[in-house]
Amino acid sequence: MAQIGYSKEVMEHFMNPRNVGVIENPDGYGKVGNPVCGDLMEIFITVKEDKIDDIKFRTFGCGSAIAVSSMVTEMARGKTLDEAMLITRKDVADQLGGLPPQKMHCSNLGADALHAAIKNYWVKIGKIKPEEAGEEIHEGEEGESCGT
Amino acid sequence: MCGIYLDYQSASPVDPRVAEFAGRFLSSDYGNPSSLHSRGLAAKAALEEARSKVAELINAESPETILFTSGVTEANNLAIRGAALRNAAKGKKLLASQIEHISVLNPHKDLKKGGFDLNLVPVDGMGIIDLAALESLLSKETVLTSVMYANSEIGTVQPIKEVSDLVHEKGQFLHVDGAAAAGKIPIDVQKDGIDLLTLSSNDLYGPQGAGALYIKPGLRIQPVIFGGGQEKGLRPGTEDLYALAGFGEAARIAKLEKAEESERLQAIRDGLIKEILKIEESYLTGHPMQRLPHHTSFRFSRIEGESILLTMDAMFNIQVSTGSACSSRTLEPSHVLLAIGLKHEQAHGSMIITLGKKNNADQIPAIANATKKTVERLRALSPL
């Protein structure tokens, strides 16, 4: 039978999101998405001994966007930065018991936000150049395609 | 499944009186209205009784003006394709308001691909059709103009008589989608000057899977599906006797009770609007006065509608609707909310409440409180 609605895990993370909030003076900060498209995520990290020590997020978006953000923060906490860079969108979706197909693109930005936060930290400590960090903030324009 | 249901427009319970009336056609009084034996004749009589009841709800000239369909989507397709193609000799121009239901817009767009000229008529910030724009777009070649009686997303009721006068002065035929309005506000196809009107059974507390198209006497249309001779050959296929008998009974009850029920729902609606607008950065969408009595709709800044719907449901067992893109299959923002001038990010934060028989004024504080808590919860999560 086709999956109907969101999985139990998605609803659990949506209703009880982990690691919500802001870290003042974070070591790394990543922001992805676009309110025009209905999804915007930001992730704050602190780093200790090359590992993610603390991590928080805030998200504007649908149920899956919030669940994905919560899940990715849980997955990343305590991991080395290199390990955390290997977390993919698909890993997050799998951990959540899957996402509806139309949500896989637009609302599955958690891994992107995490990677952006890590690259932001690497730029700060001089490990990579700013241009290697890629586009941190995607400021979309109205009328731009938000779909899959 | 208790809780508070506020999504009557998406699905309404069948009135128990309707279920009792129509239930017998499921397993005991079965028959095909086209059969000539006694069961067939009884089925035919039940079908014609239903037709009379639906005709009376909208003050149609006669029961013969009513064609039964499987619902509003089919009725809108039949009205638009059927009338435009049959009368194309008069002209190949089409008009529709920007905020028509998708089952109206898409048949129009399909006709455009087939060589018709289509223009969409704008609406103002409250969703009222721009009559001056309509007048300037109309010409004798405008074979069909579609303007809905009332909008299901923002509740706005259109000045149909004025629209009708313009269409008949400058153009040809007027098609009105009456699904959201029927049974809530009076519709009189003769006084309103409507050529084609579509109706839904479930919006009247009748069974799902039944709808109707009113066709003004003298107006010719052609079928969009082909088969036997049922419904004058314009909508072939064996009739769903249970659904249609139920539709008829629902229409009869709606005609008797709608004035009182609408007044009752309007008082609840106004109480909800007053309470919910106390929430910071909350706004009513649609017209505050020219509005369906059971309908209210809002938008909230900095949060997203699907999250509103899910939180209201999971945390408070209250079922609402939203025009948010994220809740739609296409992920497109609501064309209605964009047409009334909302920006994309504003259109995402919408919540729609449609009231019905099981709602009462005692529920207002609980609904308002749940809405407030939901908005606060999501704003605390939001980076905006």
**What is the topology, as strand order, of the major beta sheet of chain B?**
2-8-7-6-5-3-4
Largest sheet of chain B: 7 strands, mixed
Structural class of chain A: alpha+beta
Assembly type of the chains comes to: heterodimer
The coarse silhouette of chain B is: globular
Share of residues in strands of chain A: 15-25%
Low-confidence stretches of chain B: none
Number of helices of chain A: 6
**Overall pLDDT confidence of chain B:** 96
**Class computed from helices, strands and strand pairing of chain B:** alpha/beta
**Total strands of chain B:** 12
Number of DSSP helices of chain B?
Answer: 12
Secondary structure elements and pairings:
The complex is a heterodimer of chains A (148) and B (384).
Chain A: H1 8-15, E1 28-34, E2 39-48, E3 51-60, H2 63-76, H3 81-85, H4 89-95, H5 103-106, H6 110-124
Antiparallel strand pairs in A: 1-2, 2-3
Helix pairs in contact in A: 1-2
Chain B: E1 4-5, H1 16-27, H2 38-57, E2 66-69, H3 72-86, E3 93-97, H4 102-113, E4 117-121, H5 131-137, E5 142-146, H6 160-170, E6 173-177, H7 189-192, E7 196-200, E8 211-215, H8 241-276, E9 282-284, E10 295-300, H9 305-316, E11 318-319, H10 335-339, H11 344-347, E12 350-354, H12 364-381
Helix pairs in contact in B: 1-8, 2-8, 3-4, 8-12, 9-12
Question: TL;DR of this structure?
Answer:
By secondary structure, chain A is of the alpha+beta class.
Structure description:
By secondary structure, chain A is α+β, with helices and mostly antiparallel strands. Chain A is 36% helix and 18% strand. Chain A has helices spanning 8-15, 63-76, 81-85, 89-95, 103-106, 110-124, and strands at residues 28-34, 39-48, 51-60. Chain A has a three-stranded antiparallel β-sheet with strand order 1-2-3. In chain A, helix 1 packs across helix 2 (63-76). The longest helix of chain A is centred in the C-terminal third of the chain and has 15 residues, at 110-124. Chain A is globular. Residues 136-145 of chain A have low confidence and may be disordered. By secondary structure, chain B is an alpha/beta fold. Chain B has helices at 16-27, 38-57, 72-86, 102-113, 131-137, 160-170, 189-192, 241-276, 305-316, 335-339, 344-347, 364-381; strands at 4-5, 66-69, 93-97, 117-121, 142-146, 173-177, 196-200, 211-215, 282-284, 295-300, 318-319, 350-354. In chain B, strand 5 (142-146), helix 6 and strand 6 (173-177) form a beta-alpha-beta unit. The radius of gyration of chain B is 21 Å and the shape is globular. Chain B starts with a strand and ends with a helix. In chain B, 52% of the residues are buried. The model of chain B has no long low-confidence stretch (mean pLDDT 96). The A-B interface holds A 6, 11, 14-15, 17, 20, 31, 35-42, 58-63, 65-66, 102-103, 106-107, 142, 146-148 and B 302-304, 306-307, 310-311, 314-315, 324-327, 329-333, 343-345, 348, 380-384.
